[in-house]
Amino acid sequence: MGNEEGHDLHGTPGGPRARGVVMASRARCRIGVDVGGTFTDFVLVDEARDLVFTGKQLTTSSDPGIAICEGVERVAREAGLALADIDGIVHGTTLVANTIIERTGARVGFITTRGFRDVLEVGTEMRYDLYDLFMEKAEPLAPRDRRLTVDERVDSGGTVVQPMDEAELREAARALVGMGVEAIAVCFVNSYVNPVHEQRAREILAGSFPALPLTVSTSVAPEIREYERACTAAANAYVMPLMRRYVTGLHDRLGDLGLRAPLNVMLSGGGIAALRVARETPIHLIESGPAAGAIAGAHYAGITDSPSVIAFDMGGTTAKMCLIENGEPEHATTFEAGRVRRFAHGSGIPLKVPVIDLIEIGAGGGSIARLDAMGLMKVGPQSAGAEPGPVCYGRGGTEPTVTDADLWLGYLSPDFFLGGEMPLEVAAVKAAMDTALSDPAGLDTIGAAAGVHAIVNNNMAAAARRHIAEKGRDPRRYTLVATGGAGPVHAWGLARLLGIRRIVCPLGAGVTSSLGFLIAAPATDRAHSHVCRVESVPADVVNAFYEAMARDATAALVEAGGDAATVTIERRVDMRYVGQGFEIEVPVPDGVLGPDLGEELHERFLDRYDELFGRRIAGVPAETVTWRLTASGPTPNVTLNFDDQRIDAGAAGKGERPVHFPETGFTPCKVYNRYGLGPGTTFRGPAVIEERESTVVAGPDTNVSIDRYLNLIIDLDEPRPG
Amino acid sequence: MNATEDAAPNPRFDPVTLEILWSRLISIADESAAALLRTAFSTVVRESNDFTTVLLDAECNCLAENTGGIPSFVGMVPSAVKAMLERIPVERWRPGDCIITNDPWIGSGHLPDVTMASPIFHRGTLVGFSGSIAHLPDIGGSGWACDTRELYEEGLRLMPVRFIEDGQEVEVVADIIRANVRVPDQVMGDIYAQVAAQGICRKGLQQFLDDTGLSDLTELSAELRGRAETAMRTAIEALPDGSWSASMDADGIDEFETHIECRMTISGSDLELDFAGTSGQVACGINSVMKYTRAFATYPIKCALDPDSPRNEGSFQPVTVKAPEGSIVNPTYPAPVGARQLTGHLLYGVIYRCLAQIAPDRVVAESGSTPTLRSVYGGVDRQGHRFNQVLFASGGMGASHRMDGYACTAFPSNTGVGSVEALESVSPLLVWRKELTPDSGGAGKFRGGLGQDVEIEVRSDQPVRLSLMSDRHKYPPRGILGGGDGSHTRIEFRDGTRPHQKGRTVMQPGELLRLHFPGGGGFGDPADRDPAAIEDDIAKGYVSAEAARSVYGHKG
To answer: Most CB contacts within 10 A, which of A7, A369, B96, B154?
Structure first.
């Protein structure tokens, strides 16, 4: 749901323009800013006047603040406001992720327990590709010469078995500074149980080198598993100097322009936090853009009364999907950054950070189709990207892509791509399809194009099925919310494969992600690992650390502009059968925990395990691993009330054109102008509905309707028996 | 694109249909595998991916295997199901049945691996089988060890028998299993994880048949095998015809060292590997049954020649593997086979030594992680809880024509390393050191990957049982095409005394064990190494300044 993917091919940089979006809420003016790889997006919500303004600037990669300041000023001016009138800015960025992918971060020095100098390098010891003898492996964020050790050791029970040699620590830090490091990360073995040495190391280093950015592992990821925790600490240190410069500069610059309101950031878990978080634990911002997209998906789940939603965003290179249950996006506690092979699990650096749980696969408009050594047609994950792009862009692309197939099948119009700003070349598509696919495969061009479309849909369906099966759920009960340039083109095909009956296409797929910044609640996550069998869970110990976590998290929310009285605390614990390596999340009772806590958790664990895997195993003890807490403020009460007056006038109908569907082949199909369709409109598919950033395809046997929020809804008919 | 031309494709399956159908079947096997992995108690399943889930057609041909499966299991399930059918004729298989066996010769080479299969019926007709193999947490007998003299010592052996009949557990079989293993609840938990995984395969295949309207899966599997076979044949054909041989030595057991001979013969699109001349079977659990030998002989061929096609039995049709009966790579019943990886893993070394003579750009040198070095710790912790933990760690991988070997990376197995903190949280062990070993990688134009040193202390108040399965103490992993050898395995206690490399012993409270996991072999003449790479090695401490001078002649 990252906006850099969603419409990198489809957006047009330029001035902000008012959209027909009206919000009813407390009268406040807020701006959401999403810094993507290609574009920086802006959304201004003026609640008093029920107006939403949007804008787009080319991202200024060397200094992203330039585009942000220009865009913020511009969108405010467009809205007739001064920056002093703005009540808040929420900001998300791909800077952290890109810094790790491009390896442009700081020179990091790493200090760890004697005997563990190579924890960052040895890693999981696995090959992520079973058959490739020459695969590239991700380099550690601190090379061996900048990794030093200190005598110290804590055991798994938290007892210090070797006191820390403080002189050695000072010496190590001096040596690293002598090597010109720009940031230091410290990770000691078992610090997740007892962080005493990390805390002392922090005091000592802060005293000796107060200006040097410092990360101790328990401050970013106080969780068991030294490799992942060390990686998280090193990654945090790696992006810290850059993020500090960036946010400090941005804060000052916006202040100079007259902004008085707080500048907040969106965390990867979907919560809003104070700017300080971006200075101290910037690694928690690694997925802030995609998180905003998921939050927006949750919003559409709410306004369309859909309890279970798959937020599906398909752009130029990737498709992302996120499950949303009862308005809440699914969360995960790990994320792999900086993969050397983008879609290969295990080819990057594993981080222990709270994130929205997204699946990302190499399926986008630019995905390239080819025949493999077995003569089977494959689509993606290689992508033609924006340059040279699909063949039909006429920019030198020669390999057929998904967008080329979509054009050939009539889903896209050669004359109305990007609202007509980019004419597409149909003739070149046939030649490319035939050379690469139709001729060698013994198909005609239509068969090849339909094959590309079907295969990319099947790839996405397979990924979704697997993901949903892992959650122990059934895909058929979901509603598909489709965004991104290619999402609405493929949603109907994907829905059919998954047995999904309803598709929602929000108006203006281009702004949905940025809206997420303004819809999200302030929220923050805390974690604490404590491995313990259920029969001996010490309720008093758990109460004590939960109290401290709640206090800390609430303070963070207040700092982000929240009100302590309205903070909600939600607690979960990762549990497993003793001997298993995978944990499942179990809700922890509210309030002060009593002596029957272990028993209660055991019951909840057995129920949840049964729900997921269909089994209760007698006789095997269960244990807790990591205790988690989420503190959140109230969700801003933003209701989107679209004002149909502001929808472009103009005819709804745009005539007919032949469009290809699997059951019918090419068939005459009505074409509609999305901006001419008012609330309450209904018609039967097949139909193609064109808008600036995308095209909605509704196949045969569907009912299309427009709701009061101008969402386009496709209901698939009950499959006919037989 | 010769593959498609030569295959004379079945007109029912164009490249689009076939891709969609096959991806869907692989996806079913993957969903089943994910469920098995997440519910398994066996650390070997979890850390080594030592399991597989497979869909077969009604004639026991493989339709799809899970993607992440390791080489050990390629092609093992189909022949196992055929063997099951010899004992239990097909007309006696009913919906809801599940057959089990762990016979090493029928299944996958040693007793802890349990092979299971269930029939899949659709609209009253048998359309296929779901099968799985997984390494159980325990199978009784010696535990995971190599100092056994006969198969009988290695645990319970089940010839194919119904474990579930008409959906009901066969009590007598379950009772026999429970009564013969150390951790019956976990073992039964894992067996039922396999049953559940097979259920996912069954439901998935039935849904697949409903959705696609297909009734005949045999034709589909034949088409897929044919295409995979063609891809491999195309790759083999690109190599010159001829015959090449190589040999290697390994520590074996005491005075019975292991000698492996390999002759590789290429004729057109056929490739034969013949292990004639290899040592005889031994009274030690390092014998590799023929199925295992075949799996670990064909896997390196696939990596080298056709790494991109998804795994499918068809890829291995053009490859013939021969080994004399009664040899250590084709032992006869009742040879002990518990640690067959100590021999099977080695095979890639001789195969690549043959292949290097005609295609040096396709191979890697021998690895310090080959065979895997395993140490297993068992006993009672201070709270009185029983524990049994395997220390998963690897030596370095061999170098290739274009890069240094990976440090601490398993090959040909693909074992992950558990976390030290996780190990310590469930056992009374404390790991004082787990660090790369400088100078352990073989020298070469490209250097072998570094191995590592691990030091582990017993902090229980009770003695801890230790089982060691290792090799490469005497014969280190060799370099290739002028590359130097990697380091030797070393295992010793605190006082420098050495336990038997393939033995079981006891560690007293406070005892400390040091294990050195060797580095990989080098590739090419060290004199050709880029001086900048040597400087970098010195700066990072991968190579000492002294070794840079003496081995590389570096004047730094």
So the answer is: A7
